Amino acid sequence: MTSPQLPRNAYTNAPQQHPNLILGSLQLVFWLFFRPTAWRNHLERIDLNLESNSSLSILLRQGRWRNLALWRFFIQAYFILPILANFLLGLVLWVLGEPIANIAFCVGLGVVVGVVIAVRFSMVRSVGITTNSWWTVLVFPFFTVWNYLLYRLDKIRNAKSPCLFRYHSAFWNELQYLHLRGLDKYLLFVIEHNTVEGELALGYLSITPQNWAVQAAQIELDLRSLEGCKNMKDIRQVNRNLIFGESLISQFLDDAFNHTGIHNQRIALRVFVEHLDEYLPSFGEQYDFRFRSIAKSWREIILNYVEELAKITELRQEIDSPYIIGVPLTEEQKIFTGRDDIGLRIEQLLRDRRRPPLLLYGQRRMGKTSLLNNIGKLLPSNIIPMFVDLQGAPSSASDHTGFLYNLAREMEKSAKKQGLTLPSLAREVLQSDPFTYFYEWLDKVEQALEQNTVLLALDEFEVLDNAISKGRFDEQDVLGMLRHLIQHRPRFKVLLAGSHTIEEYQRWASYLINVQVVHISYLKEAEARKLIERPVKDFTLRYEPNAVERVLQLTRCHPFLVQLLCAEIIVLKNEQDPSIRRLATLADVEAAIPEALQSGGFFFADIQNNQIDANGQAILRFIAAQGEGAIVSRQTLLQQFPDADITFNLLLQRELIEEVDDGYGFQVELIRRWFV
To answer: pLDDT at position 282, please?
Structure first.
């Protein structure tokens, strides 16, 4: 429901004064005692200097006598209010039976005294009168009855605009600090039946002592939104409608539906259901019962939707793609394969008594983050991985407090996935002395570990280095903390992951001495074959032997490129007649190459734009033009590109080219085709 024009003084901290001099004067007195904010705003409208305690007479002498509003205030303050006050005094004395002569004398004396007081203090030096606490308690029962009657009347009127809600004592007695009983229900009723007035009332109450009612009403609205979800569309949209609560609902569901293929969507939705309690916003223990009911309803809706997806795939006789393109593989996604040799190497280094820090080094999209997400499968159970993506909240913090708080929070979340509950660390605790209190928190973490060891895996360490370079964090404090962790806490092992070596970041090399590099590169051929032919259980697509060999040739077992090409093959096969859909041929592989180059453009463009310079691009294009499998002699390249030794070394380091005999060629055929 929308509202027509509201009364001008409804739901505002800056009401307009009544145009009548006498009524306006009484209004000033009311504001002075009950609405000091309205009093201050009224003074500011007249003259900004009134708020700074300047005398009325001084302001008039300063040449502001042309200000009619100032003259009006002068008349009300110096004449009308003293006269009204003493008139009321005389009336009371007359009722009490005092002689007229005495009344006249008292009133006359009162007028003189009132004017003298007004002149002396200008009546504007106080910006509001704070009532005593006894007054608040004394009138509270009367306010409660008054407010309840308004609520009942508004319910009878169905909150017809303008609502009677504007007469509620919360809007005209801002000095009432006790919670006004029923205000939250009344506010909620107005919001539901009169949107315009409800929003205005929310804005007003949010900056008053009654802001508790705003929070309570907003929580109730959020709960009703969560309870009102009847299907997947409602659940996906609900987070955008929440007012008070903050949750990860939309983010995780959007991620789930962004997966290519119904298979991966089903996996992501099942993970969402398993962690549903973490994604729902938290409003406090008093709402736990309703949250349990919401979670139960949502689980039924999501699992039914997952079953529908499976039926759709079966009905269409489509091949369900399990491949994940562009995002790391999580522990729940069964497509992760291989890397046993890397897991064994990491385990050996973790047992080294020297406790060296580790660097998981490899080119982009080589599977570093996927490995870290799944490292728990490759290590003994007494080693607990705590994965922290430095590209996220920790490195985005503005100071050390934020960095350490986010670091601890990510460690807690990661440990929880391994079945270990760590003590919490509040941001407020870190404020005064961040690193000292962080070390104390680590002491508690070590106690919670019992006999286990932590592998603190910090992904994308280059992002943290960039934050240090920009001055957000102090190098000595942050890197010194990591060095202290490595040297003095044997229960903690540190593993960095990135696409650069420590030598490329000299500041790290000086703090992390004796770093052991674990190189992650292409999959083994057997691992790549499994990823192609049997990525998940009950995979329905079969390959001709020469088709598998061609995928291996084109990708060189690069994990991202294998998934990219195979995903496009499935898209192509699903467009074919069901009679030939389940067998991939060499022709299918060749037909999928242009689509893979297009859909994986972000991967190839990153190589071209971010990993090499213009000279490197020119060299790659020259080699690419020679055809598939071509090896160009070093002499020929130096004739074309003199003084390019540094560039050749960079291209070799980036694993884009390889040295064969006395020449160079592309390592990966699909990358070569991008540069043709």
So the answer is: 65
The answer to whether the CB of 559 falls within 8 A of the CB of 367 is yes
Q: How far apart are CA 12 and CA 42, in angstroms?
A: 12
Rounded CA separation 657/649 (Å): 10
What tens digit of pLDDT does each residue of 582-637 get? Answer: 899 999 999 999 999 998 888 999 899 888 899 999 999 999 999 999 999 989 99
Higher pLDDT pick, 314 / 554: 554
Q: Which tops the pLDDT comparison, 435 or 326?
A: 435
Instruction: Please report, as a single letter, which amino acid is at residue 154.
Output: D
Which residue type occupies 24?
G
Q: Kindly give the interhelix angle for 262-274 and 249-258, rounded to the nearest 10 degrees.
A: 160
Residues 39-66 pLDDT 10s: 788 877 876 565 544 455 555 555 565 6
Cα of 334 vs its chain's centroid, Å: 28
* Cα distance between residue 584 and residue 319, in whole Å: 11
Phi, psi of 631 (to 5 degrees): -115, 120
SS (H, E, C) 121-153: HCCCCCCCCCCCHHHHHHHHHHHHHHHHHHHHH
Round to whole Å and give the CA distance between 413 and 408: 9
Cα–Cα distance for residue pair 146/171, rounded to 1 Å: 13
DSSP-H helix ranges across 524-584: 525-533, 545-555, 559-574
Main-chain dihedrals φ then ψ at residue 9, nearest 5 degrees: -105, 20
Among candidate residues 207, 179, 184, 201, the one with its CA nearest the CA of residue 37: 207
* Alpha-carbon span 536 to 181, nearest angstrom: 60
Return d(Cα 175, Cα 37) in angstroms, integer: 10
- State the chain's maximal CA–CA distance in angstroms: 126
Going from the C-alpha of 148 to that of each of 12, 161, 171, the distances in angstroms are 22, 18, 14
| Strand segments (E) across 382-526 | 383-389, 453-459, 492-498, 516-519
Mean pLDDT lowest for which of 53-57, 71-75, 443-447? 53-57
Neighbours of 18 (CB within 10 A): 14
Alpha carbon distance 170, 41 (integer Å): 18
Write down the pTM of the prediction: 0.61
